[in-house]
Structures are given as C-alpha cells and as structure tokens.
C-alpha cells in the first residue's frame, strides 16, 4: 500500500491528516501496522488532554507488542475514535482510514515540520537497511 | 539435572579466550567504592558431610513450640497429598513455562488456579501469581495509578500490615506516588470513617481496604468501597484467601464491587517454613486487565479444535515492553501456586469454609479465655476473623519470653508498630489448635503475667 500524498508523517510512524475543521486526525502508518501485526487493543487519550510534541499519548497493542503512539505536534486532544473500541483490527484493515485520536494543534504551522509521503517513504527505506 | 560448575581449567580457558588475566579483571569497571570487598561474615565452604551435620544440629534446635503467631503467615493443616503431588518432577519449578507446547500440564494447573482465585474473590480475572502479598499490594496500587491517570494519591489505612505498608511505599514512592495513612478507631480497631471523610473531594487514585485487617478485625468493606467509588477512586481489597470462604467476596463489596483484590496465598497450602516462600495473588475487573502485571494463562483451541493453554496478554510484559512494562518485578511463584491449586481442589469449597469457621471459632474462644485473666483484655470490640488483639498490663516482650519458655509462641508484639495502643499482642488461632492447646495457651499466659 502506498502512503497517501495528502497526509503528513512522523519519523515514529504516525500519519496526520488536516481536517476541514482545523483539527488533526492521527493514526499509524501501513508500515507500522505491518510491523506490529494483528491488533488486539487500542488505548486512546482522553479528550481535553494537552499534549507536547512527541509526547506518548496512546498505546496500540498487537499480539506481538504494545507500542506507544506519539503526539505529532503540540495541541489538545479533541476526540478518541470510539470505533476502535472492540474493533482494533481496523488499524490493520484500513490503516489510513482508522484514526486513533483527533487533536487541535497549538500552532497550525507546526504541521509544516512533518514529512510528506515521499520523505516518509525514504525514512522507511532507510530504517529497513 | 546435574549441576556442574566450571572447573578451574574451564575458567582459565575462557579467560584466555577473551584476554582477561583473572576473574577479578571482569569486575574492573565497577568503581571500587561500590564494591563490598571481602565478605568477612561468610565462612569458607564446607563439604556435604559437614553441612549435613551442621544442618541436623541446627534443625534439632527448633523445639516443637505451639504456635499462636499469625500477623501475615498462617499455620493451616496441609493435606499430605498436596506436596506429594506438587513436588512431582513435572511440576517442580517456580517459573511459568514460556514454551507452551511443552508445558500444557503446568499451564492447565495455572489456568485452574486463576479460575479458583477469580471465583474466590468474585473478580473477572486473576493472574498466575506474584511474589507475595506485600509486593502484590504495591502492584495493585500501581495498577490503580495507571488506570486513574491524574492522581498519585493512595489512601492506606493504618490497619494494613506495617510490613505491607513499608514494602508498598518502597516500591511505589519513586514513581511520585503518595501513600496517605488513614488512622483507625481506637474502640473498634477499624478505619476511622471520620478521618477518611476528611479526604472527600480530593483527587484520589485508590483506597486500600484490608479485610480482615492486620488486627484481625473486619472492616465495613461495603461502606469503604462505596466511599472510594464516590470519590472516583478505585477500591483495592487486601484480603485473606481463607477468610473469603466465609466473608463476602470483594467483587460483591458495596454497590459496584471492589476493582482489585490482592493478598498473600500462603494460607492455601504453603507451610510457614521460617517465613517463606509465599505467593501473592491479584485479581481484577475485566476493565483493568491490561493494567494487570505478570503472567496470565488463557485457554484456547488449536487448529484441530483441541483445547490448549497458552500465555496471553504478554505484550505489556517486560520481555517485550522493557522499561515500559506493567511491572518489572512480577516473576511468579509457580510451585507455591501449584500447591495452592491442589490444596483448594482437595479441601473444596466446603472444606475451605470449615477451615475458616474452625479458625474463627478457635480465635474467638481463645479471646474469651484470655480476657478472663486479670490484667488481660481484648483491645477492640467488633467482629474479627482468626486473630485478636489482647491488651496486657505487663510488658508484652517479657510475657512472650515467659510463654516461649513454657513451649508456646504466644503471638506477635504490636507495641513497636502501634505505640499508641500500649502493650498489645496480636494472637492467631487456626483450625490446627485443639481445646487443650487453647487451655495450654491460657495457662501459660496466666503464668507469664501472674507467676
């Protein structure tokens, strides 16, 4: 699966989508879900939680490992994806559709610091070598 | 399995291979001030004949004393079959097997254990055990803090064992957690509800509810659980497994039930053995299962539909999640758990109830007899399980020394930990005591006080 070009990416394998209402949706990339394997549980941050950029804020647990999800930029959590509750496999089935949480960025310009699809792909390629 | 240590020539060869002059060179990187140097108190080695002789002599010093000490380690009858079965080669290990395909029998025992403990505590899930009750309490507190997310404040009544409080504090304090002591009512020896109420409205992660408490007294577990939940705190039941055969299970406390039940499993088939080993049990509601430390055994089916047992929910354990694991000291006590499982299977639900009832009956009878001695009275009123606190007009240490000279371990001296109570003695009588034993105790106590 290729990485959608309308998303931004982090080195820790989160994708970020700018929503029309100014919030950001955050999920994990196809590469991340493939490394982790079958998801069994997703622990989302509570709405209202204030996050620093790079802060651990969610946990995705697969049959193999429990991995942290990091805040891509500073901001405040606005929502957690309730659909993942009881259906964590959505992260495997539709990694770029299944968002984990939404946040309002403290500074919308911070999004510019993240990678585009091509840069992220180069990052993944470099990690696998 | 034979134990064959390295020979001198093995060691020389290995050192030569890595170019180290001697064994000492391997420890060079440890700064000199951190090294203990020579252990002068440790004598040189002895051969098998000498050590057998020494141990026989030491064993002979253990005079057969009639034991009335409880305080966290309880003398119960253990059917002979328990350790006959538990010490079979197939079971004889302290560890949970990671190689599930080669260890189905052990895993099934652990699964049965979990089922029994969940049923005894009225909880949804149990893990495969922890070290002991005290470290188990620390783990329960850490679970509550992780689950609560904002508060690091845990209310711990002074009626929780002083040893448990000390161990729990050592384990949790460096993670920024604050254990706040709740005083007890001097008349009942149970949590002072007014003192507790002073904490209402503050951000509290959990309230620890000991049942029975360290004094042997029964707390109002329903009211305490409801109070904790009204504060948005978790209710941690610290329970004696034998007592659960008679008392309401933590899962049924109050309107919603306790969230975590933890305790020491020693009363279930482990001998006193000079203080160990014990094992800890921890059970919780389904919602907290991902915060639960340690091994959990699951039952599943293989590709052919046959039942199989497996380690489950491992992703948050230390071999996978390292420093971020739910716990790094959750290694279990598989052998003691095996004995506990066999013990519970042998005595059964009704048998455990009779053990608990006989213990309670003996402790009650002892309390009445002892309180009949001038200068002795029960320190608290209200219901108790199989321990009671006696207040003496004489120095407890002197009384215990006199009783020991009469062949009786008279109880646990509480005076050091609870100086506000004066000269107080915690006495335990389990189902192992006969009417004659109780009479001997009373006579020895009378003699110790009045000569």
Layout of strands and helices, then pairs:
The complex is a heterodimer of chains A (129) and B (451).
Chain A: E1 8-9, E2 14-18, E3 24-28, H1 30-36, E4 39-43, E5 50-51, E6 56-62, E7 66-70, E8 75-80, H2 90-93, E9 101-105, H3 117-127
Antiparallel strand pairs in A: 1-2, 2-3, 3-9, 4-6, 5-8, 6-7, 8-9
Chain B: H1 8-18, H2 48-61, E1 66-67, H3 80-86, H4 104-121, E2 125-126, H5 133-148, E3 153-157, H6 162-172, E4 178-182, E5 184-185, E6 190-191, H7 193-197, E7 206-211, H8 221-230, E8 234-239, E9 260-264, E10 280-284, E11 296-301, E12 307-312, H9 318-321, H10 334-371, E13 376-378, E14 387-392, H11 396-405, E15 408-409, E16 412-413, E17 424-428, H12 435-450
Parallel strand pairs in B: 1-15, 3-4, 3-7, 7-8, 8-9
Antiparallel strand pairs in B: 2-10, 5-6, 9-10, 11-12, 13-14, 14-17, 16-17
Helix pairs in contact in B: 3-10, 4-10, 5-6, 10-12, 11-12
Let me know the CATH homologous superfamily of chain A. Answer: RNA polymerase II/Efflux pump adaptor protein, barrel-sandwich hybrid domain
Main beta sheet of chain B? 7 strands, mixed
Q: Would you identify the CATH H-level superfamily of the largest domain in chain B?
A: Type I PLP-dependent aspartate aminotransferase-like (Major domain)
Distance between the termini of chain B: 57 Å
CATH level-1 class of chain A: Mainly Beta
Helix/strand order of chain B: HHEHHEHEHEEEHEHEEEEEHHEEHEEEH
Shape of chain B: globular
Strand order of the largest sheet of chain B: 2-10-9-8-7-3-4
Question: Spans of chain A with pLDDT under 50 lasting ≥5 residues?
Answer: none
Greatest interface and its residue counts? A-B, 11 and 7 residues
Overall pLDDT score of chain B: 94
Q: Please name the CATH topology of chain A.
A: OB fold (Dihydrolipoamide Acetyltransferase, E2P)
Q: What share of residues are in beta strands of chain A?
A: 25-35%
User: The CATH topology of the largest domain in chain B is what?
Assistant: Aspartate Aminotransferase, domain 2
Unreliable spans of chain B are none
End-to-end distance of chain A: 19 Å
Helix/strand class of chain B: alpha/beta
